[in-house]
Amino acid sequence: MQSFSRFIIRLSVAATGLSVMAMIVTLSFVNGFQKEVSQKVFSFWGHIHVQHLELGKSLVSEETPITKNDTILNLLHHEIDIRSIDAFATKSAVIEKNKSIEGILLKGVESSFDSTRLLPFLKKGHWLHFNDTLFSKEVLISEQIASALEIKLNDTIRIHFISSKSGESSSYRKLTVSGIFKTGIEEYDNLFVIGDIRLLQRLNSWKKNQIGGYEISLNDYTKMDSLNNKLLDKLPLEWSSKSTKELYPNIFDWLNIQDVNRNVVFIIMTIVAIINLITCLLVLVLERTKMIGILKAIGMEDIRIQQIFFYNAAFITILGIGVGLIIGLGLCLIQQTTHFIHLDESSYYISYAPIWIIGWQVSLVCLGTTIVCFLALIIPTLAIKKLSPVKAIQFK
């Protein structure tokens, strides 16, 4: 019987440790996954777009030109949560190379654009070289487009620009591929090419101070929705503000589903820990039935006997949580360092399982597991009150 109870105790410690480990690893994976994918989306396209109000405008349609507005810029610069404000414009086009074509959206940026956001995606080549000529003849294309059209670094490509006005013929420019990037997000890699905004201004017959809109990056992405709503209240009626979540709802809806998966894991692991601890304590009570009868016979109160088993079970709980904490954090740190768990980037937007350990969440898991398990341990100790001393001593 002792060997069996020893096995049950070890099994309970292992089950509690497994539950805590699973919760810590799940939390770290979900946090890291949401952070990394969100960061990719925001790095390429900013957090908020400020443009003229255009109802029903789709993402791939071109913007109505706006004139740079000092009043709007001053309003934006007074928001302490804003890290950078960059002018941009987009235009539909078609890349031609080796008699093959690919539809794209050319995103034009200024020389002052915060290129540090995009440099991590650059796989080959260099960032755009801006000069004092009419416009830079360099562009960045995605690895996916380069592969589809067999384009290499420093190749000269022909880009045909589609006129937004009916009756006007399309025009083309010969541009040099200065860099090849890969974000891992198909919505970007299948569509965007990055170039000089002055090229788009020239093609659209815009003035030098006319742009498509302002791309805003924040210090803290969690404040995106609140700041976007704030800007909507402050901007003039003919201006609009849209968060990146509104532009790419499918990505962020998918990320939010990860919270559901996390909650399911938490519920299952908590139930496993509770059932195992209750079973373990019941086995201990049954094994020590004679001892309980003797203690009751000599006058020991039920609550004192309950405390003996409660302290024993508490030791098992704390030991299990400690084991789970060490193994869970260890696995997270190994993955964080080596990236040994790989993902399909075309499906998950990232090539490895990212990890983000948040200290207060780990502490809350340990504390919450301790409280829940302690409450669950009260249930089997109630059986001690119902044991008759005579029957307990005679128990075999």
Helix content: 40-55%
Indicate the radius of gyration in whole angstroms: 31 Å
Spatial gap, N to C terminus: 11 Å
Domain count: 2
Helix-strand sequence: HEEHEEEEHEEHEHEEHEHHHHHHHH
What's the shape? elongated
Main beta sheet: strand number and arrangement? 10 strands, mixed
Q: Strand tally, please?
A: 12
DSSP strand (E) fraction? 15-25%
Number of helices in the DSSP assignment: 14
Q: Spans of 5+ residues with little confidence (pLDDT < 50)?
A: none
**In oligomeric terms, what are we looking at?**
single chain
Compile the SSE list and pairings.
Elements: H1 2-45, E1 48-52, E2 66-67, H2 70-77, E3 82-97, E4 100-109, E5 122-125, E6 138-142, H3 143-149, E7 156-161, E8 171-181, H4 186-189, E9 192-196, H5 197-203, E10 210-211, E11 213-218, H6 224-234, E12 239-243, H7 244-247, H8 249-287, H9 289-297, H10 302-338, H11 345-348, H12 359-381, H13 383-386, H14 389-394
Parallel strand pairs: 4-9, 6-8
Antiparallel strand pairs: 1-11, 1-12, 2-10, 3-4, 3-7, 3-11, 5-8, 7-8
Helix pairs in contact: 1-8, 1-10, 1-12, 8-10, 8-12, 10-12
